[in-house]
Protein 1
Amino acid sequence: MKKLIIQFCLIFLFNSFYTSLALAQSEDSAVIIMYHRFGEEGFPTTNVKLSQFDQHIAELSKDNYNIVPLRTIIEALKNKRALPPRTVAVTIDDGYLSIYKEAWPRLKAAGIPITLFISTESVNDQNPSSMTWDQIRELDADPLVEIGHHGHAHAHMTEISNDEAKADIEEADKIYQRELGYIPDLFAYPYGEFSENMIEIAKSKNYEAAFAQYSSAVNSRNDIMALPRFAFNENYADIDRFKLIINSRALPVKDILPRTADLDVNPPSVGFTVDDNIKGLGAMNCFPSHIDKAARINLIGTNRVEVRFDEPFPPGRSRINCTMPGPDGRWYWFGLPFFRLNTVN
Ligand SMILES: [Zn+2]
């Protein structure tokens, strides 16, 4: 009996050791990347070269990454469940023909799951650079592929009325229902542009999650209706940058100011508090998208970061990227987007 108890205790200790080891290695962080076009020279802001994409796939195929369907990340974030280090999901927006011709065969051969956010108008209009519904249905039948909602007309939804935005989404709903037999429940804001109003609309549509387009790793503290994605185009798709991004991890922050991406004070006073256990904030840099040098950072106490900018942000989309070196040669990455309507002075 005594021997049995000792044996039981040893098994218990052994199991808890390995459980805690696995938990210590897992983290509240993931990286979501996005593409548009593949091998379509002439569209440098949305295209990646095939040579670049081949390098990306070769890197993602290495053992040290945990490549998952987007939904796996969403479920982990919602349930505050940690993920293995270097968890990455791949998304592609708009529905260009080069997805079908170039991206999908490569991703399928590598066994990499993808989520395709398709806007319905250009497909319906049989735009020669878009996929057809037959091709989209063929992709949809592949277990590696999920189709997401991207609205109908690819509108700047923060610049139209709520009613117009809802009407656009409902037009797409009808078409998805007709062509695919269901309405996707993952949503990507066209151009990544969102607002408090758009988040409310996304919630009212009961989407599982909604996605923006700005550089940041995600964690469970992100608004599930405005999750960041790293976008790649041929000017910013070299393999070193790609590796830096897919190895990055979310910087755990709270008390973020300003509270919304709608830029009502310009330049904004950005501030956030980093968790106590993160050391080395002195090495942090924050780069705004509109100025070619790092912003001024004031550290208050040991972990409050205040970021200040010398110049106002221009109209349209802007962002800041705050990064600092972390353990294992991986970088902490925290970004914020800002949207300033053209009409606002
Ligand atoms: Zn798009």
Protein 2
Amino acid sequence: MQEYTSKEVFNQRFMEMNGDPKVKNREIAYDNWLADYEAEIEKCETVIVDLGCGLGNNTYFLIEKGKEVLACDISEVAIETLQKDVPQAKTKLFDMTQKFPIEDNYTDIVIADLCLHYFTKEVTKKMIAEIKRILKPNGLLLFRVNSIHDDNYMLKQSTLDKDFFWEEKQQKSKRVFHEESIKEFFADWKIEKIQEEKMLRYFKEKIVWNCAVRKV
Ligand SMILES: C[S@@+](CC[C@H](N)C(=O)[O-])C[C@H]1O[C@@H](n2cnc3c(N)ncnc32)[C@H](O)[C@@H]1O
């Protein structure tokens, strides 16, 4: 068994979204969560890295603000769709569970929206260390992850650690976060915001943590 949802599962999902005119996510739509960080984004002079960019909701927001963006994902379908829809963005196809093909101190801002919550504790820690490596000193990571209070449809499935779940039939993994676990993962960062909130980008309401942490 692998430790996280594979790229084939994501590719399949994005192909379905591409092929279904009724799927509103297919139209690039962001839910404006990054507006909270507008001042920080405005003054950023480096390329901004959008990790797990998917079809480009956040990339599109940043490009609209006149920013340079490196949009990264494991899914070829996501990257190819984004290249067509947001040709101004640079893209990189890679698996975040491995060393990122990005140099040290590359950027002042990393965005990781709804993409850090698929992994075991060990893999999550490894990814956070990689994010730290590519951030400049004092750089900012803005991210959203599943809250423990989200609709935990997978919680009855096999539990690998206290907050990590694997759904065998769909081959999907999910981690849920508590305020304490976020503080633990980012113990050696400066935590600027941990806010639990509802998001409405998908058809169904979702409860997430909206967080800003700074490399120290
Ligand atoms: C729920 S989507 C979020 C997409 C986008 N950030 C957004 O908010 O619209 C999760 C994204 O993470 C990507 N992803 C999942 N596992 C990954 C991995 N190991 N490496 C890189 N990207 C990954 C998926 O392909 C997918 O695009």
